[in-house]
TrEMBL record:
Required cofactor names: Mg(2+)
Native source organism of the sequence: Candidatus Coatesbacteria bacterium 4484_99
Superkingdom of this protein's organism: Bacteria
Listed InterPro entries: ComB-like (IPR005238), ComB-like_sf (IPR036702)
EC id: 3.1.3.71
Protein name: Probable 2-phosphosulfolactate phosphatase
Family to which the UniProt record says this protein belongs: Belongs to the ComB family.
Enzyme class: hydrolase
Reactions catalysed according to its record: (2R)-O-phospho-3-sulfolactate + H2O = (2R)-3-sulfolactate + phosphate
Pfam family, one: 2-ph_phosp
Gene Ontology molecular functions: 2-phosphosulfolactate phosphatase activity; magnesium ion binding; sulfopyruvate decarboxylase activity
Keywords: Hydrolase, Magnesium
Stored PANTHER family: 2-PHOSPHOSULFOLACTATE PHOSPHATASE-RELATED (PTHR37311:SF1)
Length: 245
C-alpha cells in the first residue's frame, strides 16, 4: 500500500484528477490553523454535523434548507458578514453548538474537504486528534493520501508538520506502507525539525503570525495541544460527522 502527501488543494485536485474514483483509499484532511481543529472541536462539543461549503453564497443557500443550522466561517481569518460564528475553536462551545448542524465556509480547509469528497473515505485531522487518526489509518488498511490545506494554495508549515507526524507514526508501526513522493519525505523532515516544539512552530509559521496579529494567539495554543481528543470525524452524506461515542 502507498502513503502520499499533498500540500495544497490545487495539488490534491491534480492528484485526484489522475486517479481512479473507485480506488479504495483513505483521505486525511489537515488544516491545523484552523478549519480542521475547529471542526473536530465543534463535533466534540456535540454539534451533529458540519456541512463544508465552498463560498458564502452557497452557505446562505444551504441555510434556506437547514433553517436551524449555524453559519460559520472566515475570510482572511475574520467572521464572514451575516454569519453567526467565525473560525476560532473557542467560539464552538457546547452551549453554542450542541444539537445543531453547522454550515461552514473557510478559505482553504473546506475547499480541500470538498475536493476530496467522492474519492474515498475522508477523515479530519489536526494535532488535537493526531494519534486517534494514526490508529484509524492503521486499522483502515488501505492506500492513504494525507491532504494538507495550505494557505491560498501555497504550502504551509503547520499542515506539513502535522502530516509529518502522521506519516512517521504510520510508517514506524506498519511495514505495509511504501512512499515515493518527495512531499512525504519533506513532511517528515519538517516534523523532525520541530518535534516537541509544536507551539513554537505554530508561532513562527506565516499563518500563525497572521492570526496572532488579529488577536487569535490563543487559537495557536489550542491547536498545539497534541492528542487533546480521540475523536475522528469523517464524511458521510456530504457532511462531517462522528460515530456514536
Ligand atoms: O483557510 C482556512 O480554512 C482557515 O482555517 C483559515 S483561518 O485560520 O480561519 O484564518
Amino acid at each position: 500500500m502507498r502513503i502520499d502527501v499533498t500540500f495544497t488543494p490545487g495539488e490534491l485536485k491534480a492528484y485526484l484528477a489522475n486517479s481512479d474514483r473507485n480506488h479504495r483509499r483513505l483521505i486525511v484532511i489537515i488544516d491545523v490553523l484552523r478549519a480542521t481543529t475547529t471542526i473536530i472541536t465543534a463535533l466534540k462539543n456535540k454539534a451533529i454535523w458540519v456541512l463544508p461549503v465552498l463560498a458564502p453564497e452557497e452557505a446562505f443557500e444551504m441555510k434556506k434548507v437547514y433553517g436551524d443550522a449555524i453559519l460559520a466561517g472566515e475570510r482572511d481569518g475574520e467572521k464572514i458578514d451575516g454569519f453567526d460564528l467565525g473560525n476560532s475553536p473557542f467560539e464552538f462551545t457546547e452551549e453554542v453548538v450542541a444539537g445543531r448542524g453547522i454550515i461552514q465556509s473557510t478559505t482553504n480547509g473546506t475547499v480541500n474537504i470538498r475536493y476530496a469528497m467522492g474519492y474515498g473515505e475522508v477523515i479530519i485531522c489536526s494535532f488535537i486528534n493526531i494519534n486517534a487518526v494514526r490508529r484509524f489509518c492503521l486499522d483502515y488498511n488501505a492506500d492513504i493520501l494525507v491532504a494538507c490545506s495550505g494557505r491560498y494554495n501555497i504550502m504551509c508549515l503547520e499542515d506539513a508538520v502535522c502530516a509529518g507526524i502522521l506519516v512517521e507514526g504510520i510508517i514506524e508501526q506498519s511495514d505495509c506502507y511504501r512512499y515515493e513522493m518527495d512531499s512525504v519525505i519533506i513532511s517528515m523532515h519538517l516534523y523532525d525539525e520541530c518535534r516537541n516544539e509544536i507551539l513554537g512552530m505554530l508561532k513562527k509559521s506565516q499563518h500563525g503570525r497572521y492570526l496572532t496579529s488579529l488577536g487569535y494567539g490563543r487559537d495557536l495554543e489550542f491547536s498545539a495541544k497534541v492528542d487533546s481528543t480521540d475523536i475522528v470525524p469523517y464524511i458521510a452524506d456530504d457532511r462531517v460527522v462522528i460515530g456514536l461515542q
